[in-house]
Amino acid sequence: MHFDLIDNVIELSDNRIVAIKNVSLSEEYLQDHFPSFPVLPGVLMLETMVQAARRLLIHRDPALSRHVLGSVRALKYGSFVRPGETLEVEVSLGKEMRSGVYEFRGSGRSLSNGGGKPSPAKNTVGGRFTLRPPSPLR
Q1: How many domains does the chain divide into?
Q2: How confident is the model at residue 19 (pLDDT cuts 50, 70, 90)?
């Protein structure tokens, strides 16, 4: 299954990407997470950062497009991201490690899309993770 959580890339350089994911009430998973208080699941916040990191790698070298999540460290969650809000993620490349493994630092914040007075951004997720080449089929 292929799904793309990134709605738009705001900035992209060789070592940094800023991207957004708009959260809409029409997204199917929100019917169950949670019916009376719909919020973007934490695992999808992480996946948004992973997808942004993969785009950063592809920008550097298209041959890196198959990299997958290797590890996650020091991941912390803050505020919820609700329908009508935008998750803005910023991912920076730390270093290339052994065997084509790349280390990243990522963070996310929720931005209000509502009319009227804009509310301040709230930190939603942050931590470090790696992307690695896929394991060969056995």
Answers
A1: 1
A2: very high
Please write the tens of the pLDDT for every residue from 62-108: 999 999 999 999 999 999 999 999 999 999 999 999 899 999 999 99
33 is known as an active-site residue: yes
CA distance 49 to 127: 10
E strands, 8-137, in order: 8-12, 16-22, 68-77, 85-96, 102-112, 122-132
Q: Is residue 3 part of a domain?
A: no
Of the residues 2, 33, 59, 67, which is catalytic? 33
Cβ atoms of residues 88 and 108 within 8 Å: yes
Angle (CA) 125-66-105 rounded to 5° is 25
- What pTM did the predictor assign? 0.93
Handedness of CA 103, 109, 113, 117 (dihedral sign): negative
Q: What is the CATH number for 40?
A: 3.10.129.10
pLDDT tens digits, one per residue of 36-51: 999 999 999 999 999 9
In a domain, 138, yes or no: no
Tell me if 1 is assigned to some domain.
no
